[in-house]
Design brief:
globular; mainly alpha; Four Helix Bundle (Hemerythrin (Met), subunit A)
């Protein structure tokens, strides 16, 4: 087991989200440093890592239980994604620092949530709720037609 896996072992889901935000901030710093030294390849690699994290976070949103919070996070991830793409395309330190400031603010909110036992208990209950999966949804039309056919 490597150091990174050991550092994440035993963390609750919210602490893992905070770790992903920390990763985004670290890679945004790397992208800014790459721009400042004229390293196009380094900038692209760092931005790709940020975008990978954003896509992972986006894919893990549960719109069925998250309601407006999940929708707001989805919009936030899309905005940061666009800002990072623009910052990379223009090699704009200003745009990437703007993205970094936004990510830091939301990271701090997640960090507060990570320390609240009541919120953690609620999140655990939600994660144990039955989930609709792709296979469940695929079977639904067949079940509906079986109910209505004679």
């Amino acid at each position: 087991m490597n150091y990174q896996k050991e550092a994440l072992a035993g963390k609750n889901p919210v602490e893992l989200i905070v770790a992903l935000y920390d990763g985004m901030i670290r890679f945004l710093h790397e992208a800014v440093a790459a721009i400042e030294r004229g390293d196009t390849s380094g900038r692209r690699v760092a931005i790709k890592r940020v975008l990978d994290i954003l896509m992972h976070l986006q894919s893990r949103l549960r719109m069925d239980v998250g309601g407006t919070s999940a929708q707001s996070l989805s919009e936030f991830y899309a905005a940061i994604f666009a800002l990072c793409l623009e910052g990379s395309r223009l090699a704009s330190v200003k745009r990437l620092e703007e993205a970094m400031a936004c990510v830091r603010d939301v990271r701090e909110a997640w960090n507060i949530v990570a320390r609240d036992p009541e919120v953690l208990r609620m999140l655990e209950q939600e994660s144990q709720a039955p989930q609709l999966t792709h296979s469940t949804l695929a079977q639904e039309p067949a079940m509906a037609s079986a109910r209505w056919s004679a």
